[in-house]
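User: structure tokens for this one?
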Amino acid sequence: YLNMEEDQQKKALEFQILNNQFEQYKQQLAKLEEQKKDISNLSISLKEISKLKKDSEFLSPLSSGVLVKADLKEPEDVLMAVGAGVMVKKPVKEAKKLIAEQEKHITLMISQLQSEIQKIGQVINQLQQELQ
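Assistant:
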């Protein structure tokens, strides 16, 4: 009888740990999906900006819902952050390639995380049935 009780306690602890991990993974997935959305929007913006000519007027976002009119001085180049507050001038074509690579990488991470969430979900369901 004692072994059965210990087994139930171990299963309950495992259930709790996996459930916490499951919730953390779901939060990570939501963040990755938001990043992917942002990158996708950036990709669209790069395509659009590459169609503009020098000194074209356009609206540039300062933050969510706040835009400013701007004149495009260098339509063939963009400034990209490379870390530590450093910006580097890149041709739009090269920026598009880098963004596409980032999008592929995030898509792969999302896929892997979804797979892990599914596996953990199955184990959680099994444990839940055993604990009833």
